[in-house]
Write a structure and sequence with these properties.
By secondary structure, the chain is of the alpha+beta class. Helices cover 36% and strands 28% of the residues. It has 2 domains: 56 residues; 137 residues, Nucleoside Triphosphate Pyrophosphohydrolase (Alpha-Beta Complex).
Length: 205
């Protein structure tokens, strides 16, 4: 579960962001700006980021506040799972990332798998839709509410190749996983995706 201070700051930020988008009253706009500053102060106080940097980051988000979408590809071969090593932290994850606009969810995950691993795949079905804040991800200061979409993907071709965000690619035994980047995927989720792939089930929340 996310730290409570992070949840509070995200909720305040969402109110402020949506209010600034829809309000035309200058006094209300000032109050929403003050709320956004409070959200930035909470994050800055509990992290090593400067208030001014956090405030600038939050002010960059406009429009009605909605969850962001992260897609992850579950690719299995001979009972082993495809993982990529993230350059940003040196840890391993199922390939994936933020969903790009004007691509469908399945197109996004296929693109991410190819860019991060070199493998060509076909998304065959949804395995899970999760609210990231309700799972055992490491707390970070990302002030977004995130939905994670896991897809079962079938290998179609290609060969292992790293991308701009990955430094290694491999298939791993489920009982011998490397250190995972738990801001992106947890060990429980990897095992859950394998179980859902076998059973034909779907998980959510």
């Amino acid at each position: 579960m996310a730290e409570k201070w992070l949840e509070w700051s995200m909720r305040i930020q969402a109110i402020a962001q949506s209010g600034r988008w829809y309000s035309e009253n200058k006094y209300d706009l000032e109050r929403y700006a003050q709320l956004q500053d409070i959200a930035a102060e909470i994050v800055a106080y509990h992290s090593d980021h400067e208030f001014s940097r956090v405030r600038t980051f939050l002010q960059g988000e406009t429009g009605y506040a909605t969850p962001k979408v992260d897609v992850r590809g579950a690719v299995f071969r001979d009972g082993r799972v495809l993982l990529v090593r993230e350059t940003i932290d040196g840890l391993w994850s199922m390939p994936g990332g933020w969903a790009d606009i004007y691509l469908s969810p399945s197109e996004n995950v296929v693109k991410e798998i190819y860019e991060e691993s070199g493998y060509q795949t076909r998304a065959t079905r949804v395995l899970a839709v999760y609210d990231r804040s309700r799972h055992e991800h490491a707390a970070d200061i990302n002030p977004f509410h995130i939905y994670k979409l896991f897809f079962l993907c079938e290998l179609q071709g290609g060969a292992p190749r790293t991308g701009t965000e990955t430094s290694d690619v491999g298939f791993f035994d489920l009982n011998d996983l490397p250190p995972l980047s738990i801001t992106r995927v947890t060990e429980r989720q990897v095992h859950r995706m394998a179980a859902l792939a076998r059973s034909g089930g779907v998980d959510f929340d």
